[in-house]
């Protein structure tokens, strides 16, 4: 039993509110315990200069991501990022971008950019993983908003993506760490996977002494369990709007 009463393999309570704001075609407020992230997905009918090609018919799309922790998301207050994104935020937004690009067929998307924004309203551990899980929901809504402009026989979203943290606390592998657990973890992993159980990215660190293959395998088994539950949560949240071609 953990400090908040959860079992070792239990996720924090999850909530997701779609269409939380009206400006972006995809907008989801996701909550994992106290961690709260606003994820939006916008569609831009343009490409970065380095993606430009002479023939628009041959253009393939792109996805970019930004991540920010708002000043009131932590205690003590985090300074607002003004002129330059800090190194942690830069690393996390690159992770979010890499993760969600694994979901997309860019040739089917065409000459468009999907812009993902993840703004942390409250941070209690697992902000990057909640951002990825919530941003996939926003991405689905954004792509659905331009369905009539896309090829009917070639889906843009080719797989679902979710992410979860695992770690070792007091010698025990645990799933979905909050801040209390993360701050004292002996091992800290962030795992991104598809809904079919394939790995997209694994970030892992021994916070003290090195850990064994057996302990790594135990954490990855927990992550696989967690991703399956998160994928079902995503399916339930989208309901009839879940991309019909996905398993």
Total domains: 1
% residues in beta strands: 25-35%
> First CA to last CA: what distance?
34 Å
Structural class estimated from helices and strands: alpha+beta
Question: Overall 3D geometry?
Answer: globular
- As for the CATH topology, it is Ribosomal Protein S5, domain 2
Low-confidence stretches: none
Helix content range? 25-40%
CATH superfamily: GHMP Kinase, N-terminal domain
Number of strands: 9
Question: Which series of helices and strands comes N to C?
Answer: EEEEHHEHEEHEEH
How does this model look, in words?
Its EC number is 2.7.7.56. Phosphate binds at residues 88, 126-128. InterPro entries: ExoRNase_PH_dom1, ExoRNase_PH_dom2, ExoRNase_PH_dom2_sf, PNPase/RNase_PH_dom_sf, Ribosomal_Su5_D2-typ_SF, RNase_PH, RNase_PH_bac-type. Homohexameric ring arranged as a trimer of dimers. With 247 residues, this protein is an alpha+beta fold. The protein has one domain (14-239): GHMP Kinase, N-terminal domain (Ribosomal Protein S5, domain 2). Helices cover 27% and strands 28% of the residues. It has helices at residues 87-101, 106-109, 127-144, 179-182, 213-238; strands at residues 14-18, 26-32, 35-44, 62-69, 113-122, 161-169, 172-175, 187-194, 199-206. The strands form two sheets. A five-stranded mixed sheet has the order 1-2-3-5-4. It has a four-stranded antiparallel sheet with strand order 7-6-8-9, with helices on both faces. The longest helix is centred in the last third of the chain and has 26 residues, at 213-238. The protein is globular. The model has no long low-confidence stretch (mean pLDDT 95).
């Amino acid at each position: 039993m953990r400090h908040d009463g959860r079992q070792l393999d239990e996720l924090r309570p999850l909530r997701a509110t779609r269409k939380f704001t009206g400006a972006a075609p995809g907008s989801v407020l996701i909550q994992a315990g106290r961690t709260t992230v606003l994820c939006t997905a916008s569609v831009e009918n343009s490409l970065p200069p380095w993606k430009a090609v002479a023939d628009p018919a041959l253009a393939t799309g792109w996805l970019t991501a930004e991540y920010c922790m708002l000043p009131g998301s932590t205690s003590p207050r985090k300074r607002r990022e003004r002129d330059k994104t800090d190194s942690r935020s830069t690393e996390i937004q690159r992770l979010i971008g890499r993760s969600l690009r694994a979901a997309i067929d860019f040739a089917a998307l065409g000459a468009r950019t999907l812009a993902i924004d993840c703004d942390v309203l409250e941070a209690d551990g697992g902000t990057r993983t909640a951002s990825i899980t919530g941003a996939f929901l926003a991405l689905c809504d954004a792509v659905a908003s331009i369905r009539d402009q896309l090829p009917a026989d070639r889906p843009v979203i080719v797989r679902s993506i979710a992410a979860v943290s695992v770690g070792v606390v007091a010698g025990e592998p645990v799933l979905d760490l909050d801040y209390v657990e993360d701050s004292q973890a002996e091992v800290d992993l962030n795992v991104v996977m598809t809904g079919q159980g394939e790995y997209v990215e694994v970030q892992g660190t021994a916070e003290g002494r090195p850990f064994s293959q057996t302990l790594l395998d135990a954490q990855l088994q927990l992550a696989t369990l967690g991703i399956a539950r998160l994928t079902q949560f995503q399916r339930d949240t989208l309901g009839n709007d879940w991309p019909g071609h996905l398993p």
